[in-house]
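Hi R.,

Here's the input for the flavin-adenine dinucleotide complex you asked about:
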Amino acid sequence: MTTTHFDYLIVGGGMVADTAARGIREIDRDGSIGILSDDVDEPYTRPALSKKLWTDDEFTWDKVPLGTADDTGADIRLRTRATAIRPDAHEVDADGETFAYGKLLVATGGKPVPLPVEDRSNGERVLSFRTAEDYRRLRSLAQDVERIAVVGGGYIGSELAAALVQNGVDTVLVHTGAVLGDAVFPVALAERFEKLFRDAGVEIVAGSKVEGGEADAAGVRLSLENGDEVRADAVVSGLGIDVATDLAEGAGLKIDDGVVVDAQLRSSADDIWAAGDVASYPDRLLGRRRVEHVDNANAQGTAAGRNLAGAAESYTHTPYYYSAVFGIRYEAVGTLDAELETVEDWIDTERGVVYYLDDGRVVGVLLWNVEEARDAARAVLADADTLRRDDLVGRIR
Ligand SMILES: Cc1cc2nc3c(=O)[nH]c(=O)nc-3n(C[C@H](O)[C@H](O)[C@H](O)COP(=O)(O)OP(=O)(O)OC[C@H]3O[C@@H](n4cnc5c(N)ncnc54)[C@H](O)[C@@H]3O)c2cc1C
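And here is the predicted structure with flavin-adenine dinucleotide in place:
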């Protein structure tokens, strides 16, 4: 078996891999960087897969790849799945090859939760949505079939429903909430949000969980928990991810809803870091958490890359999250949970701020069409100990 040595080895070829390679290069211009990825594409910008590629004619495919290899000199091995890490030997096995490393970054992200549908269409009509290849397949289905069901009312499901209907597809969105978005938005805002979809022509099947169904070359039948059925030519699901900790767990790294890392993103094993969707890290303002969003992937990737190369810096960035549908853009910092107490502060009918309070303390801020206010939202979280409910309205504009 051949062994290839890299000074820096990154397992996972997603968004963290890109920024981590760049972070390494900020400190070390010469060390060798290897990236092992089971994807078929080099690192690319994932958010575009459910947004701009569908809705912005000027955002063409050439803007999707991140240019990691060209910019950093990283040796990217595609279609290469890492199957074991041996921390003591500083080695990783992947598809019959062994890679030796000086420093290792685990950036394996997560895998989409599968839809419980019996698929006899060979995956042609049943898709989850995470990769560029998933995008290409959905795009071609959108051209070839009339009606597509989207399952899941989170941000990926709602973005996909918006993308499909705006591209002329007869779209049905199946979600478990009473109203789309009601797990995170106050109910009146969720109702406005759902109306955007209905007005655009999306058929909404609310309060419904898909518990089974089948797909074949002729189409898809989804069985809902209440006994109803939804039929479509194809189905795409956005049911969240299972965090990809199996590799790290097999190597004996400490796992607790993600690979547990310290403030410098170091795992429990020597010379192994973790970052992005897979990492459980101590957020400076919000406490230990795992974040499945791109701002975190980018900032943590950079920080981890710098630390692999010896910077020894703490990760102090508190990430924001965003989504965009039908001309609305919302951003959020902290915890958004509609079960929490909320304070709404509307600047006008289209723009507003929602504060989420837990036991009287602000734990999350939603910015609805409010630009350039992320730092102000972070400042609210930083000052949460001293802010009272009455101090909130008018605070962010
Ligand atoms: C369609 C879509 C839209 C999104 N839109 C937004 C948005 O609008 N706003 C936002 O904040 N966030 C968004 N996100 C989330 C954001 O893209 C993720 O948080 C980010 O990609 C996480 O980066 P990562 O590197 O941790 O994981 P990923 O980008 O998922 O990369 C993980 C990589 O590891 C590879 N891998 C896993 N296991 C192995 C293994 N054993 N061997 C080799 N390779 C392996 C995977 O193939 C993948 O390439 C979106 C995600 C998706 C899927």
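One thing worth noting: The chain has three domains: 3-111+241-308, 114-237, 327-391.

Cheers,
M.
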